[in-house]
């Protein structure tokens, strides 16, 4: 065998063996390495809550239940919408749960594709709207002084690393206008993978964040903002965010079942602020009802009316984005009026329609349809008129 051929065989063997060794390492390292998680788990999945460690939030001692009256609606599918009617549309678009609540009465509660009322659904970025509510509660309690406080008031180590962090306020984090870097490249080492899979999100948020422009100038959807909000909550309240959530929001809203909040790792024990909230669909949907009722639900004044209004107003003044406020997406439509939305990956939605006294929640295995922000107000219109 020639030396050249021998070298080629060795090189080919290395090309075959090294990836296998790397994957084998990754499979054994998902508890300690975000890179390993990204390699093995790849794209996010609605069952990821079974992979991450989690902290449980107890159900309420005063569970909020609803009268249920299934209402039939005349909903005409647009061209391109799969199915023959609303029921087949929801099933074929990989919907897990669909709930509509009007006048505090459940007028639709349907489950598909192997899910039922006791199933766990996940939030993905719907969790960001829950974080916003917790910021409002901490502000009302006095744990947080003002949303105009610089983040360095609570996270002083950021200013030690870069004095420009003193210019970033809580308001900038809430409105996704902090000026921080976030690059979504769908690579195991890019920002989107790190903020989702890292095993120490505290360190990531405090040491990996980088200022790329002055705050308040540009809207840029960025999970680092929500991680920093979670850290501020932790520092301001002096406890774990999931405990604060349990005591100040989950239980007062009347959760009928325990919820969980996925953690970055057992060692770090920090809640995955931007995407890790899990529970029954009906309990997650109660956030929309809380906002619909200006912060009062289940006999508890949980949020101030002023916070609800600020969080969900259509900004026409100085904010970088009219369509995004305090971790909520805001819509203004001449046909449907103002409405707002908590939304997450794979088609997780809690939509609030104040003019119709209506909340619609849809949780999915995947999107299954491209234009949910067009379909949801049409669904609201149908249910409001039924």
Which percent range fits the helix content? 25-40%
CATH class of the largest domain: Alpha Beta
Describe the main β-sheet briefly: 7 strands, mixed
CATH topology of the largest domain: Beta-lactamase
Classified in CATH, the superfamily of the largest domain is: DD-peptidase/beta-lactamase superfamily
Mean pLDDT: 93
Number of strands: 13
Q: Structural class, from helix and strand content? A: alpha+beta
Order of helices and strands: HHEEHEEEHHHHHHHEEHEEHEEEEH
Rg over CA atoms, rounded to whole Å, is: 22 Å
The separation of the N and C termini measures: 82 Å
Any idea what the CATH architecture of the largest domain is? 3-Layer(aba) Sandwich
Outline the fold blueprint.
Layout: H1 3-28, H2 34-41, E1 54-57, E2 67-68, H3 86-92, E3 95-102, E4 105-111, E5 121-122, H4 126-141, H5 156-161, H6 170-174, H7 191-197, H8 201-207, H9 223-237, H10 241-250, E6 259-262, E7 277-279, H11 281-292, E8 296-297, E9 300-301, H12 305-312, E10 329-333, E11 337-344, E12 348-353, E13 358-364, H13 372-384
Parallel strand pairs: 2-4
Antiparallel strand pairs: 1-6, 3-4, 3-13, 5-7, 6-7, 8-9, 10-11, 11-12, 12-13
